[in-house]
Specification:
Chain lengths: 337, 460
Amino acid sequence: MANKSKTAGKSSVKTSKKELLQYYRDMLLIRRFEEKAGQLYGMGEIAGFCHLYIGQEAVVTGMQACLKEGDQVITGYRDHGHMLACGMDPKGVMAELTGREGGYSRGKGGSMHMFSREKNFFGGHGIVGAQVPIGTGLAFANKYKGNDNVCLAYFGDGAANQGQVYEAFNMASLWDLPVVYVIENNQYAMGTSLARASAEVELYKRGISFEIEGEEVDGMDVNAVRAAGEKAVKYARSGKGPYILEMETYRYRGHSMSDPAKYRKREEVDDVRSHRDPIEGLKGELLEAGHATEDELKAIDKEIRAIVQEAVDFAKESPEPDPSELWTDVLKEVETA
Amino acid sequence: MSVDILMPALSPTMEEGTLAKWLKSEGDAIASGDVIAEIETDKATMEVEAVDEGVLAKILVPEGTENVQVNAVIAVLAEDGEDASSVEAGAAPEPEAAASEDTAEEDDAPDVEVASQPEAAVLTDPAIPEGTSFTETTIRDALRDAMAEEMRADDRVFVMGEEVAEYQGAYKVTRELLQEFGARRVVDTPITEHGFAGLGVGAAFGGLRPIVEFMTFNFAMQAIDQVINSAAKTLYMSGGQMGCPIVFRGPNGAASRVAAQHSQDYAAWYGHVPGLKVVAPYDAADAKALLKAAIRDPNPVVFLEHELLYGESFPVPDLDDYVLPIGKAAVKREGSDVTLVAHSRMVGFALEAAEQLAGEGISAEVIDLRTIRPLDTATVIESVQKTNRVVCCEEGWGRFGVGAEVAAVVTQDAFDYLDAPPARVHQKDVPLPYAANLEALSLPGTEDIIEAAKAVCVGL
């Protein structure tokens, strides 16, 4: 059996100044978008379940940089970051959160159920673990069609204990399907810490019984994510089968908006924020390398805030769906020959 | 003392088979465990092993004999020390005689056997042009032909499930598909319903047209989250972007003597869910035409077959591309006094009941729903407006069932036409028992339908 290893040291992938600045923008957009979403939730503009991605931005940003046209992305319900990383319009995402006509699902999906055929984002799934066999099926379709596209199937440390995940692992490995399983280990499945729920806490080892290679990655470092992602995606694309990446990451906010987060200490969150924050980390790197000045980064921040504000305005102004929308999209019309 | 060797039952539903080959000759010594013959059922060729030791004294049913009934004496074994040549060979009943015995037995338990179709009275679908010729085809082959035709026409169509490829289908519905289409398009899965149902949904999202076979729908309960939450709801939740063109198919309902966990009708379960289409055909022509429609449909379709009908033959029109619209019920027999509404195997019982009721002066109209969702309420209402009475028949449990829905629709939309409250015939409200007598008591059949029809026709 091949290696089941932790990634050693820093990345070997050379990232350009342009790429690094793009990661900074992408991560910042997710951060500011989510902060605003949290604020709108507090104001009653967003309802229901709303799971924020703050703290985990490096994972989707680094992974998305490894994809090419036609590759697919699928995830669970903490999905706003994935959608923005896929290039979906912040206006359409925010308007879906407010349940408006201008939302990606025209207000009928909400936070957990958004999709974009155009951007190859396949949801947004509300049932823990359900996206894993579905993502494996997308990979099956790629292989069936004979293209070299890869599917990224994201799930959390909580979903990593679901039975259907292992059913999917088995078939993906058995049939060498081009899928990369990205486990976003943010340490807590709702309020239950990894150690309290998992007999094997090193989740990158979960593929051993299925002959799937796995690696642990620092999910707070966009460069480390990118480096591991390149390797995994290349592996899957070359027809060798699935690959598992366990991203060690952390969510700063509660599981959902209604979570008082009594299961962890404030100090623990503050410690990650001050020492491992993915955006602050990259900022330091950019400044240190002379890729940008403080003023330039401030200008980017200002620009991102404007994009997010524009999304908020759109999401508030977009009308609620027409009552007739209640009855649409239940079934597709059958085409008659 | 000689021992009779009987035609064995090689599956829960086998009633007869072909004695394909004798592997021992008269006079051969036989040890327990020796393979003595090969028997073909409608599903497979099986080897028959000897249970007792001795000398094969007489072969009573020659090889190549078809329709040998289960339990018919096929040979006689002389035990140790016995003179094989002196063994009397008069015990073998003719296959035909055995068949009539079987029928007589089943009169006591009408639920177990499908009624022979009263052909003269049964109407064919009006979509079939006049002058069309027909070929007698089993439901099993009709379903197979439907898949093969659609797979020939569209490379995106593939079939996956347990034992669909190398084994040729647990119930032989996918027989020879592997040989024609290869392993890329006929995919054996591990025993992992939840996983492969989800994988099928993903493949459909990814542009393919999967046919997911569940070995039986009982096992699909493992996968029902993917069927409902992923397949049925995603079109709506995506504001119309996604769509999931997939067929979930397999045997549904009671088999024979397999008890509670393997005997359940899921029509009402899936019929409850917006975003799904649910089809439950009775005869082979509908099975073929509706499965082809299901494969072409851009929506998820739950296609409920019936194991006890797989081996039944019906006329299938000799048309190149026979497809029927999903969502249309069929009037299988016209009548004026009472409407019998049924689906799947219960249609056979309803037709048999109608035939018997006719002899007693009651003219029953039989409607085969064919599709559970969307339910063709117009055809039912039109019939009830004519007959003024309705009996809703289903194999599943009555509570919150298909018949409950039909009764509610009739009460709501044809209340003023009713001369009696709608009646319902359904399985008893218990898990299906194993014991033959209890099983027969639990399942509804022809007699129950006749009784219910007479009850609503009192004072006619």
